Amino acid sequence: MILYLTERAEVVDHYEDKLIRTVSTSFKLPKVLRLFQTHKLSHNVKFTRMNVFYRDQFQCQYCSTRLPVNELTFDHVIPVSQNGGTNWDNVVTCCKPCNTHKGSKTLKVAGMKLLKTPKKPRWSPELCLRLLEDDPVEWWNFFPEKIAS
Ligand SMILES: [Zn+2]
User: Fold this and answer.
1) For 17-60, how does the pLDDT look when each residue is reduced to its tens digit (9 = 90+)?
2) Please, what are the domains in the chain?
3) CA atoms in the 13 A half-sphere facing the CB of 143
4) How far is the CA of 67 from the centre of ligand 1 (A)?
5) Closest residue by Cα to residue 127 from 9, 15, 58, 45
6) Which of 3, 46, 66, 112 lies 20 to 30 Å from 38 when distance is taken between CA atoms?
7) Taking a C-beta distance cutoff of 8 angstroms, is the pair 111, 5 a contact?
8) How many of the other CB atoms lie within 10 Å of CB of 31?
9) How far apart, in whole angstroms, are the C-alpha atoms of residue 134 and residue 99?
10) Distance 81 CA to ligand 1 centre (A)
């Protein structure tokens, strides 16, 4: 809504039956918005705790267990003690047992494998929504990979 109201997006489709009322006006709730500046969003993904979780889909990158945020932590693939950086290419989502097992060892020494090589996401992870069964069917048209939970 902020993107729309600050004219950073236009409405492609809206709900017929849902109105948003402000003090001075009312309008139909947008269902699909087109962003005017996707390039800014795609090149400027901030390295944050939540964005790493989103990129990794809340899944431990070693044992592939999916967990709630409070049961997740991070692992430096190349340990900090071996000059591994705290950045997109070296930090992955990790469950606590795997984190304890790996400790400050390298993958090889720990005998562990990554699900995928970590890298900076091309899209802002918080915008990569997961579609659910009761989301509007129109949204499915905008997702190249149709993932239903
Ligand atoms: Zn794990």
Assistant:
1) 888 887 888 888 888 888 776 655 555 678 888 889 988 989 99
2) 1-36 (no CATH), 49-110 (1.10.30.50)
3) 16
4) 9
5) 45
6) 66
7) no
8) 17
9) 36
10) 21
State the amino acid at position 88 in one-letter form.
W
pLDDT at 141: 64
pLDDT of residue 50: 85
pLDDT bin (cut points 50, 70, 90) of residue 86 is very high
The residues that bridge with 91 in the sheet, in sequence order, are 76
Gap from CA of 93 to ligand 1 centroid (Å):
9
Distance 4 CA to ligand 1 centre (A): 40
Which has the closest alpha carbon to 41: 8, 14, 13, 10? 8
User: What's the token pair of residue 76?
Assistant: 């430096």
**Cα 107 to averaged position of ligand 1 atoms, centre (Å):** 13
Which residues in 4-71 belong to E strands, given as ranges? 9-21, 26-35
Residue 59's identity, in one-letter code, is Q
> What is the rounded distance in angstroms from the CA atom of residue 10 to the CA atom of residue 32?
9
Q: Is this model's pTM higher than 0.85 or not? A: no
